[in-house]
Amino acid sequence: MSDDYLRKPFSLAPAPAVDDPQTSASTNYTPATSTFSNTPVSPYLNYDSRFLRQAQPEFIFPEGANKQRGRFELAFSQIGTSVMIGGGIGGLAGVYNGFKVTNALNQTGKLRRTQLINHVMKQGSGTANTLGTLAVLYSACGVLLQYARDQDDNVNTVIAGTATGLLYKSTAGLRKCALGGAIGLGISSLYCLYLLAQESNNTNSSSPKFL
């Protein structure tokens, strides 16, 4: 061991730091910044970290595409919902009619239970079939009109509703066919008026109101 430390004067000053290549590299490191903003680029993942903080939705739509589902995409849910609603309504009506008939005939026990099941199955399937058929006709007419006119608006809804009523009653004679078309026209027109009223309420609520 050398005695050089005895010849040096005593001092309370801190010793000079030793040049360590790893320490100097870490202290002199300055994270690179993005060319688009002052957000630092991660040295480990090697990409701009600003892409992690996106406030916009992550769904990608082609340029010029509509961000809402069209009539063809909505047709499947509309048909299925109509069938389920028709089955539920018809089943409840079948239960009511079954109790009414069995009470009138004084039926009890297994015979009454069988009659109730028959009424529920028959009326439930009939109502589900009716509403499902109307939904298929309406969806088909709406999809064809959308492709023919290249736009989806309330005009397609009114025409599709009217055509659905005409087609559904087309085999029952001219008078009933016209009556079905009128019913379809009225229901579709009321639905379009409801949509227009709802849109106007939304626009009025977003705008400032003056008393």
Can you characterise this structure?
The longest helix is centred in the middle third of the chain and has 41 residues, at 109-149. The protein has helices spanning 4-7, 21-27, 71-104, 109-149, 154-168, 174-206. It has 211 residues and is mostly helical. The model is unreliable at 23-27, 31-36 and 207-211 (pLDDT under 50).
Structural class: mainly alpha
Q: Give the CA-CA distance, first to last residue.
A: 95 Å
Mean pLDDT: 77
Instruction: Give the total of beta strands.
Output: 0
List SSEs in N-to-C order: HHHHHH
Low-confidence stretches: 23-27, 31-36, 207-211
* Main beta-sheet annotation: none
Number of helical stretches of at least 4 residues: 6
Query: Shape from CA axes?
Result: extended
In short:
The chain is mainly alpha-helical. It contains six helices and no strands.
Q: Which key features would you list for this structure?
A:
211 residues; mainly alpha; 6 helices; extended; disordered C terminus
Describe the secondary-structure layout:
Blueprint: H1 4-7, H2 21-27, H3 71-104, H4 109-149, H5 154-168, H6 174-206
Helix pairs in contact: 3-4, 4-5, 5-6
